[in-house]
Design goal:
The complex is a heterodimer of chains A (348) and B (274). Chain A has 348 residues and is mostly helical. Chain A has a single domain, classed as Orthogonal Bundle (ABC transporter involved in vitamin B12 uptake, BtuC), CATH 1.10.3470. Helices cover 70% and strands 2% of the residues of chain A. Chain A has a two-stranded antiparallel ribbon. In chain B, α4 crosses α5 and α8 packs across α9. In chain B, the strands form three sheets. In chain B, strands 6-9-10-3-11-12 form a six-stranded mixed sheet, sandwiched between helices. A four-stranded antiparallel sheet of chain B has the order 2-1-4-5, covered by helices on one side. The termini of chain B are far apart. Chain B is globular. The longest helix of chain B is centred in the last third of the chain and has 16 residues. With 274 residues, chain B is an alpha/beta fold. Classes of the chains: A mainly alpha (348), B alpha/beta (274). Chains A and B meet through α1, α9, α10 and α11 of A and β8, α5 and α6 of B.
Chain lengths: 348, 274
């Protein structure tokens, strides 16, 4: 690791000029874009359904639900933390709305606000515990994950006597809410779900925040070198707790999108998805160690997952291939990340 | 022990018989020194000599327990680093407070980002920050091709000078440098010494902490020698030679071994320690 070895030996201490390939690979999302294109072409050519309007809207819908969450998880990862409770959160928020509207007759809009407040409070709780104790967020949110998973089942069963919400579509105001969270509209011959619009908005918003606001600068800083960030006056606690709350808020959004699409929610909803969000973010170029990544990359990661998930169905393969494929993608992405980081980033 | 009071403006920073005790441990006592604008004060001492305690007092990280600290001629007692910073006393610690994966310009303005627009449209003024970063670095003699490159890709000396340039830009009147050359090879250390000289020429006071007389002597105007928590004296350059300084620092018995150690690096490559 001798910096001078590759420095052009000019008169001054000029730094090494990276090659065009490295410069391009420094963009966190380039690898994911290439992979997404390859998968798109593969399934378009190998199946009949993939490129039809119905096919496209199916995998776009699937991608959008993972995508909203993956973008939030990516922000959190760039900020140097994990949230394993993100999957269970989509179930918790859906169940809150489902239970208190169908069982107790609470106004549906109010129920949604209550669910959002609960989600943000849990997110803030995760953040405070992580920041105050210095425990790894992996452990803290693993605990939250199990707590939520248990509560989702136990409380739902206790109140409703079953493990799924029924009769939600009969709740007053359901149709009005469905317009925002569960409707679909014609677009280029497709029947596109509204969740795709949410996904696009979230990606654009997250990209703006990350690259063009103070908050974005702070997110990169607290994830990249928390001590340095603190020394430079970055509000570390506020930034990290805010990120946990954003992730929980995204969990709420996905919970609503699922709830109003199918009009029901299972008590096990979201369990097992937390790692998929992290995988989407990593495939999209986020470093597990924080300080590097992009919202657009995470969206591409979700697109890859959504396309593969539905593509395998269209190709009528055994669904178990998905997991093997996902593992392979993850490994590949991590290796690419490692290479990029060595070339472009950290030299200690 | 010379107490130089310059004729015109008072020194930016001055300490008189300053001391610090942590409980029953006396980390520093009876140290006097000063640094004026356009002057480099080198603080030399072996490990455990009290250098860290000394800069922590100047930086506002610790309060002194005896003696007086004067900033711009006024007696002060800092209760936190922010107070020192607000007076223009900036400290560049060894970790440099940079984020390696972030671009140079983002690091430069970290925590003090420039924005434009109002309300939800308030956004980073990227163009201005890039330009200022480039200009400020150019003033320090660093000509970066690309302020978008991650700080981690800069050489150790350049990273150090980015941190110095940042302190200067944000209003530092005096920069305290905590062992800026200790982790660097000979060539990179030379680069940093050049930047120290440049900061001095721009009218800043520089407090340069080091344990290496060969780094201190060429650039220093005054030398404060510490040993085991006490001052061995505050010398002007004309009052001391590098040999005397090395002798004082090392203490006669260890001098030979130290001299031997000091000779070696000149032949080595310019690579910094990992």
């Amino acid at each position: 690791m001798t910096p001078t070895a590759t420095v052009s030996q000019g008169a001054d201490e000029r730094i090494r000029k990276a090659g065009p390939l490295i410069t391009m690979l420094r963009r966190p999302e380039v690898g994911a874009a290439v992979a997404a294109l390859a998968i798109f072409l593969f399934f378009s050519l190998s199946t009949q359904t993939f490129l039809t309007p119905a096919g496209v809207s199916t995998w776009l819908y699937s991608s959008s639900l993972f995508g909203v969450m993956a973008v939030a998880v990516a922000l959190l990862m760039i900020g140097g933390e994990f949230d394993l409770s993100a999957g269970a959160m989509t179930g918790t928020t859906g169940l809150i709305v489902g239970v208190i509207t169908t069982e107790w007759g609470v106004n549906i809009w109010l129920a949604m606000v209550i669910a959002l407040v609960v989600a943000l409070a849990i997110g803030a709780g995760n953040g405070y515990i992580v920041m105050r104790t210095g425990l790894p967020s992996f452990i803290v949110t693993l605990a939250t994950f199990f707590i939520l998973q248990g509560l989702n089942l136990a409380v739902t069963k206790q109140i409703t006597g079953t493990v799924a919400i029924q009769g939600l579509s009969a709740v007053p105001g359901f149709d009005a809410v469905k317009i925002f969270f569960g409707s679909s509209f014609p677009f280029l011959g497709m029947d596109l779900k509204i969740s795709v619009v949410w996904w696009v908005i979230i990606v654009a918003l997250a990209t703006w925040v990350l690259l063009r606001t103070k908050a974005g600068n702070w997110i990169f800083a607290v994830g990249g070198a928390v001590a340095s960030a603190r020394e430079m006056g970055v509000p570390v606690l506020k930034t990290k707790v805010g990120l946990f709350m954003v992730t929980a808020g995204a969990g709420w959004l996905v919970g609503m999108l699922q709830l109003f699409d199918v009009s029901t929610v299972q008590a096990t909803t979201g369990i097992g998805q937390e790692f998929i969000y992290i995988i989407c973010a990593v495939v999209g170029g986020c470093l597990l160690t924080g300080g590097y990544g992009s919202a657009f990359g995470a969206a591409l990661g979700a697109l890859i997952y959504g396309m593969t998930l539905q593509g395998i169905v269209f190709a009528q393969w055994d669904n178990n291939w998905l997991k093997a494929f996902l593992g392979g993608m993850l490994l590949l992405a991590v290796l690419v990340n490692l290479y990029v980081r060595r070339q472009a980033g950290v030299r200690s | 022990m010379t107490e130089k009071i310059s004729a015109g403006a008072p020194p930016i920073l001055e300490v008189r018989d300053i001391g610090k005790a942590y409980g029953s441990i006396i980390a520093l006592q009876g140290v006097s020194a000063s640094v004026s604008a356009g002057e480099v004060l080198c603080v030399l001492g072996d490990n455990g000599a009290g250098k860290s305690t000394f800069i922590k007092i100047l930086a506002g990280a610790h309060q002194h327990s005896e003696g007086t600290l004067l900033a711009f001629g006024e007696e002060r007692r800092f209760s936190n680093p922010r107070e020192a910073l607000d007076l223009g006393i900036a400290t560049v610690y060894q970790d440099l407070a940079v984020v390696p994966l972030m671009p140079v310009w983002r690091n430069f303005f970290l925590g003090s980002e420039l924005t434009r627009g109002v309300g939800p449209f308030r956004r980073l003024d990227v163009q201005a920050m890039r330009t200022i970063t480039r200009d400020e670095l150019a003033k320090m003699g660093i000509d970066l091709r690309d302020v978008d490159q991650p700080v981690g890709t800069l050489s150790g000396g350049e990273r150090q000078s980015v941190a110095i340039a940042r302190a200067v830009h944000f209003g530092a009147k005096v920069v305290i440098l905590d062992e800026p050359t200790s982790a660097l090879g000979v060539k990179q250390a030379g680069v940093v010494l050049t930047y120290i000289a440049r900061a001095r020429d721009r009218g800043l006071g520089v407090v340069f902490i080091t344990h290496n007389p060969h780094h201190a002597y060429p650039v220093g105007d005054r030398f404060l020698l510490l040993n085991r928590g006490t001052s061995l004296g505050d010398f002007a350059k004309s009052e001391i030679t590098i040999e005397e300084m090395t002798g004082l620092m090392a203490g006669g018995a260890e001098l030979e071994a130290l001299a031997h150690e000091l000779e070696r690096p000149t032949g080595a490559s310019g690579a910094p320690a990992p």
